[in-house]
Amino acid sequence: MARQTAPKRRRRERGSIDPDDIVAGAFELADEVSIDNLSMPMLGKHLGVGVTSIYWYFRKKDDLLNAMTDRALREYLLAVPLPKSEDWRESLTQYAHTMRKAFLSNPILVDLILIRATLGPRYSELGAKHIEGLVARLVDAGLTFDDGFDTFSALQLHLHGSIVLTRLHEKSKASDPDARTYYEDLAISPESTPILAQAAAHGHTGGAPDDRNFEFGLRCILDHAERLIESRNAEATPRGAA
């Protein structure tokens, strides 16, 4: 179970805390007790201030979580520049790996951005421009507008889905160490399910959001995009051209 208390700081003087201090303290506390268990009274104790000092800036927990989400986007995700490679496939592969690593290394990002999924106006706009640049690369590479958008949408769904499944499994394990997912509970035996038994022997786990399955899914999406580009280029090449 997640811990419900955090070490107390020395109590601050009245008026000695500001919104940045509160948000920073909220990240510290959430790292110990999780976003779900974070509360304003608990945060006040963690920061060494009365809870009214927090409510002065953030009237409810959702307001605080919105501020945490904005900071998370600014410092962890939007701070990551778009891939510089001119090769569209390498660019999207780098993007997928960078984003997946950033999320999996900091579970609070997943809770705030992917699971809670509430963005402030400024970061909604920046996030849209981020996606715009990546879709533009696909269109520049030779995809139609529709195929370019659908390709990035599929990649983003694959990326975010694998990250969220990993995080939900971690949260289940934190509350119940014996918790198991559907792919861990399959009854596999050489007699009843020989194909699944052979797959397990070769290190496959069906449906698991692990590195192997993520890479295969990513490769399938990019391979399909590459075939679409090749087909479009072939249609554009005049007959008899070298």
From TrEMBL:
SUPFAM superfamilies per record: Homeodomain-like (SSF46689), Tetracyclin repressor-like, C-terminal domain (SSF48498)
Lineage: Bacteria, Bacillati, Actinomycetota, Actinomycetes, Mycobacteriales
Xref: PROSITE patterns: HTH_TETR_1 (PS01081), HTH_TETR_2 (PS50977)
UniProt keyword GTP-binding present: no
Entry keywords, A to Z: DNA-binding, Transcription, Transcription regulation
Domain HTH tetR-type: 16-76
Alphabetical list of Gene3D superfamilies matching this protein: Homeodomain-like (1.10.10.60), Tetracycline Repressor, domain 2 (1.10.357.10)
Residue ranges flagged as DNA-binding region: 39-58
Organism of provenance: Gordonia hankookensis
Database matches in Pfam families: TetR_C_1 (PF02909), TetR_N (PF00440)
KW Nucleus (keyword) present: no
Name of the featured protein: TetR/AcrR family transcriptional regulator
